[in-house]
Every structure is written in structure tokens, then in C-alpha cells.
Design a protein that fits this description.
Polyamine Oxidase, Chain A, domain 2, single chain, 479 residues, alpha/beta, FAD/NAD(P)-binding domain, globular, Amino_oxidase
């Protein structure tokens, strides 16, 4: 029996990932942790260029985006967005009810925070915006245009936050280490605005070519999706919120056959496939942590657009005429009737009339930023209840394609591979570049390993897509 089939079969007993979900990520990757042996040899050639992410280990992010955790409610996002005493305002994707976890949600929250400030402030007041991501820069631009004196304080040595576009002569086009997709483009004008700024986007379907670990192309049945939908329907009728994992177990939806079909894939494997390639990627979290009440249904198949020309094109005009204080960590915010004061990590202080805080939810959870007085109970409760998920990427550039498919999206079913989802950039750019995605507990585990082991795991996951003519001369995996 495959390891993943066994894990799904055991969902009704012990927690699938309780141990890994409870272990906080290390501040930075370390090569001393070896969660799994390095696979050698590899049939996949060595890439010419590699870039990886570790968002859970990033001290200024502590994750990729928020998600509905067990016990959390949409109303808590609204509570987090509520102004405090007319002096302190919070923004960011975690405060968005309509589009949490998205760039458009973050941007809309910045606009909302700017309106909240204008409702109580007088033009000419000094407004400090903490965080130079899309939420902070959007708010800063709106307030500057409305006649306020605005300063943006950013902990990083760059702007953008969780939008991290890398333009490097080694790569044939800008690569996105953070956000790279306009989600549900039919509900936003963001893609049209990007095109207006000269940023190219392309339709990105979630329909994938799916292969087994042996490289066999198999159609994806609705077995896994039906099981998840049945579990969520069962959870909706319960008197209290339960995790998706508990809903799968207690509803009986996870009681699927572990007997392999002719393709070598069982019904239980297809449930694992749905969990790994849909639920985990959408939330960045394990099913033990996802809310059975508020986990959304699978998104539309053809509503996303892939950003190809640099997501940072959004920032070109936002900072014009605005003071930016970079590489400055805010450790304390004091606020009251007379205004607000920020204490920076270097010991300096900065005064303002009002403050907009746009740091990620993951940072708020660490409590490295002190509030004086403390945030109201509703805000603290929301920060504690809402979840912060992790989705990491590895970008690989090859001398030439070694794969035998033109499909833009690849997935695998069964087996033990860490990277189950790949984006093939050839159809979009003509360049032999692949992007591997890893989320939830697997991303947290891999965040603690060194670059070589991270790469080895990625290359091993690509073996099902190797062209048969390339399998005769295996290439040793990186050591």
C-alpha cells in the first residue's frame, strides 16, 4: 500500500499532520534536518538556474496567505479591519472578507483603510503606513492624493511584500517568487489594469495533465471532489465547526477503497489527490486545520490569469512623492488621543497622527510588534483564530525541455513525491522553465532543509514527466 493511501485511510484515527502542524518553522532553512533520503540517481537533468522560496521562514511574512481555520469566521476578518480609537487602522489580505489571500483583496483593503482614515482625519495630518506591500502602498497613494503627509515604513530592503518579482539577466523573463496569479479574474478588474500598465497576463486553466508515478497519463475522476463535497455538506449541518479532516472521517466520506485500479490508482489515492492539489494549495494548510464550515468550494477552472510581465508593475507610480523608510522594523506602536508613536528596531522613534498597519497576519501572530495599549479583544481574537498558510515555489530553468507534454499544468497522483503540482512555462513564454508548488505541512518540512535537498526533492517529483527517450542516461541528483 502506498504511504499516501495509508495516510488517508488513517484520517479517522490519529491526526494526519498534528505533529508537523504544531512545530513552528525555523527562522531560516538549515541543511542539518533530513526528513527524507535524497533520491539518487535522477532521470531529470540538472537545471541551469534555480530559485526557491521559504515564506514560512521569512520573518516579515511568516507564511503566504491567510485561510479559514477551524473556529474562525468571516466576521473576524471584519473585526480585524475595524479602526481602533480613530488612530490605528489595519489592512492586508487577512482583513478582506470578499477576497482573502489574494492581491485584489489586499489592494481593496488598502483602499478601505484610506477611506477610514479620511473619515476621521484632517488633510495635512501625518499618516504612517507600516508595510510597503500592495495594501500599504495603495493606502499611502490614496492618502497622499487626498492631501495627507504620508510616510511608509518597510522592514525589508525592497517594496512589494508578498509580491516579489525578480528580474535577473540569468532568467529569460521576470519570475514571481510570491503572488503570480490573478485569482478569479472574472470578479476583479486587476488583470485589465495590469495590461494597462504594460504587464502581460495569460489565461491559466486549472485543468491539468495528471500522471502516476510510473508516468502513465490518467483522467481525473470526481471521486476525490465528491468525497470532499460530501464532507463539507456534512460539516455544514453540525452544531459547531469541525476540521475538514474530521468531516471526512466522521461523515464516512474518507472510507474509500484502497485497492488499485488498472491504472495503479485507488479511490483513496484520488481523495489524497484532491486534498493535496486543491485543498492544500488553496489554503496553504493541512485539512486538520481547515474549517469545515468556511473552506470554500473549488474555484472555477478557467478564471485565473498568470502574470508574465512582472507583478511589481503595480508599484511603479504608487510611491511617487511619498517618503519611504526602508529596512526599518517597527517593534512598538503607541497610540492615544494626541496621536501615535512608532519605535523602530534601531531605537529611533517616529511620530504620526494616525497609523495604518498592513503587516501579514503571520507577523501579527508572532507578537514581535507591541501595541500600547493592547489591541482590543476582538482584534486579538481574530489574529489568534484566523489561519496563516504556506505555499512555496521552486523555479527551474533548463537548457531544453526534457518532458514530452505541452500541457501548461501538471499534477501527479499516488506515490510519495513532495511536489505534486507543476506549471510548464513553455506554452506561455516559449522558455524551458518549470515552476513547482508545495504547500501546507510539506512546505513547512521542506522549509527546514538546505537548497540541495530541496532541489533533489523537486527533481525526483519530475520523473513521471521525463520523455521516454531521455530515460536511458540517468543524471546523478545534486549532492
Amino acid at each position: 500500500m502506498k504511504r499516501r493511501t495509508f495516510l488517508i485511510g488513517s484520517v479517522s484515527g490519529l491526526s494526519l499532520v498534528a505533529l508537523t502542524a504544531c512545530v513552528p518553522p525555523s527562522p531560516r532553512p538549515t541543511a542539518s534536518v533530513s526528513p527524507s533520503p535524497t533520491p539518487t540517481p535522477s532521470l531529470v537533468p540538472k537545471p541551469e538556474n534555480v530559485r526557491r522560496t521559504s515564506w514560512s521562514a521569512d520573518p516579515f511574512a511568516r507564511g503566504s496567505f491567510s485561510f479559514p481555520a477551524v473556529g474562525a469566521t468571516p466576521e473576524q476578518r471584519e473585526a480585524l479591519a475595524t479602526p481602533v480609537d480613530g488612530r490605528l487602522f489595519l489592512a492586508g489580505e487577512a482583513t478582506s472578507i470578499d477576497a482573502p489571500g489574494t492581491v485584489q483583496g489586499a489592494r481593496a483593503s488598502g483602499m478601505r483603510a484610506a477611506r477610514d482614515v479620511q473619515a476621521v482625519a484632517t488633510a495635512g495630518e501625518r499618516i504612517a503606513v507600516i508595510g510597503a506591500g500592495i495594501a500599504g502602498l495603495t493606502a499611502a497613494r490614496a492618502l497622499k492624493d487626498a492631501g495627507f503627509d504620508v510616510v511608509v515604513v518597510e522592514a525589508r530592503d525592497r517594496i512589494g511584500g508578498r509580491i516579489d518579482t525578480v528580474t535577473d539577466k540569468k532568467w529569460p523573463f521576470p519570475i514571481e517568487l510570491g503572488a503570480s496569479v490573478v485569482r478569479a479574474s472574472g470578479t476583479t478588474t486587476l488583470d485589465e489594469e495590469l495590461i494597462g500598465l504594460g504587464v502581460i497576463t495569460a489565461p491559466f486553466s486549472r485543468t491539468s495533465e495528471t500522471r502516476t508515478s510510473d508516468g502513465l497519463v490518467v483522467p481525473v475522476p470526481d471521486t476525490g471532489a465528491q468525497a470532499v463535497n460530501a464532507a463539507l455538506a456534512w460539516a455544514a449541518d453540525q452544531p459547531a465547526d469541525v476540521s475538514v479532516a474530521r468531516a471526512l472521517a466522521d461523515s464516512g466520506a474518507s472510507k474509500l477503497s484502497t485497492t488499485d485500479a488498472d491504472t495503479g490508482v485507488s479511490d483513496a489515492d484520488w481523495l489524497d489527490y484532491e486534498i493535496t492539489t486543491v485543498l492544500a494549495l488553496n489554503s496553504g494548510a493541512a485539512v486538520d486545520d481547515q474549517s469545515g464550515w468556511y473552506t470554500p468550494a473549488a474555484p472555477g477552472l478557467d478564471e485565473d490569469r498568470l502574470v508574465l510581465g512582472g507583478f511589481n508593475g503595480l508599484f511603479d507610480a504608487l510611491l511617487e512623492g511619498i517618503d519611504l523608510l526602508g529596512s526599518s522594523v517597527v517593534t512598538r506602536i503607541a497610540y492615544g488621543e494626541s496621536g501615535a508613536s512608532l519605535r523602530l528596531g534601531n531605537g529611533e522613534s517616529l511620530g504620526a497622527d494616525r497609523v495604518i498597519v498592513t503587516v501579514p497576519l503571520g507577523v501579527l501572530k508572532t507578537k514581535v510588534m507591541e501595541f500600547d495599549p493592547p489591541l482590543p479583544f476582538a482584534h486579538r481574537g481574530a489574529i489568534a483564530a484566523l489561519g496563516m498558510g504556506t505555499l512555496d515555489k521552486i523555479w527551474l530553468q533548463f537548457a531544453e525541455p526534457f518532458w514530452d507534454t505541452d500541457a501548461p499544468l501538471w499534477t501527479t497522483v499516488g506515490g510519495d513525491d513532495d511536489f505534486r503540482v507543476w506549471i510548464n512555462m513553455v506554452p506561455f513564454t516559449g522558455e524551458p522553465v518549470l515552476v513547482g508548488l508545495v504547500a501546507a505541512e510539506t512546505a513547512l518540512r521542506l522549509a527546514e532543509v538546505g537548497d540541495d535537498e530541496f532541489l533533489a526533492a523537486a527533481l525526483a517529483s519530475l520523473v513521471p514527466f521525463v520523455s521516454p527517450m531521455d530515460t536511458a542516461t540517468p543524471t546523478p541528483a545534486p549532492k
